[in-house]
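Input (structure):
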C-alpha cells in the first residue's frame, strides 16, 4: 500500500485504517449482519459521515484493500520492464496476493464472506471491476498488441486465478497450474 506523504494524508489514512480494523473486529466478534454502521462509527470514535467519506458501503469495510489490490494488478502490467513478458509479471503479483489472503488468521474473514450473500455479491462486482481495469491496462500497452476481447478474457482469467487459488488446498500450486493455462491462452491469441 502506498504510504501517504503529507501530514493530512497520513491522518486520513490512519483514520481509514482505524475504521476498517474496528469494523473487521466487530464483524468477526458479533457477525457481519449483527453489526451496523453506527456501531462501527461509534466504536471507531468517528462520525457516520466520516465513515462514509472513507467507505462507500458497509461491504466496502470488509474489502478495505480493494483499491490496493486493483492498483497492484495494474502496476504489474504498466510497471513491467520493457520487453518483460506479461503473464509471468501477473503470475508473480497474483502469487503474492494469494499468499497474503491465505496467511494465518485470514480464514475467519473468508468464512464470513462466504456466509454472507451481501458480501459475496459485493466481491463478485469488485472482481468484475478489477477485471475491467486490468483489461484496460493490458489493451493500452502497445507492446502487447492484443484485441480488447483477448485483453478482457485474459484479465478475467487472472482475476479468477486469484479466487480459485485462494480456495485451493495448495494455493501456490494452484496459481502455477492455472497460470500454465493462462500462458497457453495468451500465446494462442
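Output (sequence):
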Amino acid at each position: 500500500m502506498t504510504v501517504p506523504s503529507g501530514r493530512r494524508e497520513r491522518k486520513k489514512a490512519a483514520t481509514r485504517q482505524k475504521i476498517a480494523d474496528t469494523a473487521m473486529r466487530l464483524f468477526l466478534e458479533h457477525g457481519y449482519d449483527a453489526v451496523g454502521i453506527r456501531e462501527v462509527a461509534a466504536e471507531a470514535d468517528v462520525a457516520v459521515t466520516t465513515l462514509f467519506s472513507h467507505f462507500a458501503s458497509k461491504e466496502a469495510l470488509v474489502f478495505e484493500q480493494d483499491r490496493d489490490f486493483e492498483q497492484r494488478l495494474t502496476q504489474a502490467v504498466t510497471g513491467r520492464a520493457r520487453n518483460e513478458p506479461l503473464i509471468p509479471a501477473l503470475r508473480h503479483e497474483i502469487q503474492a496476493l494469494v499468499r497474503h489472503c491465505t496467511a494465518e488468521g485470514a480464514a475467519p474473514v473468508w468464512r464470513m464472506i462466504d456466509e454472507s450473500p451481501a458480501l459475496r455479491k459485493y466481491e463478485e462486482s469488485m472482481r468484475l471491476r478489477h477485471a475491467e481495469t486490468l483489461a484496460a491496462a493490458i489493451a493500452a500497452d502497445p507492446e502487447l498488441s492484443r484485441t480488447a476481447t483477448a485483453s478482457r478474457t485474459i484479465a478475467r482469467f487472472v482475476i479468477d486465478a486469484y479466487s480459485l487459488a485462494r480456495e485451493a488446498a495448495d494455493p501456490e500450486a494452484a496459481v502455477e497450474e492455472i497460470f500454465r493455462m493462462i500462458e497457453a491462452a495468451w500465446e494462442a491469441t
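Notes: The CA atoms of residues 73 and 97 lie 10 Å apart. The mean pLDDT is 91.
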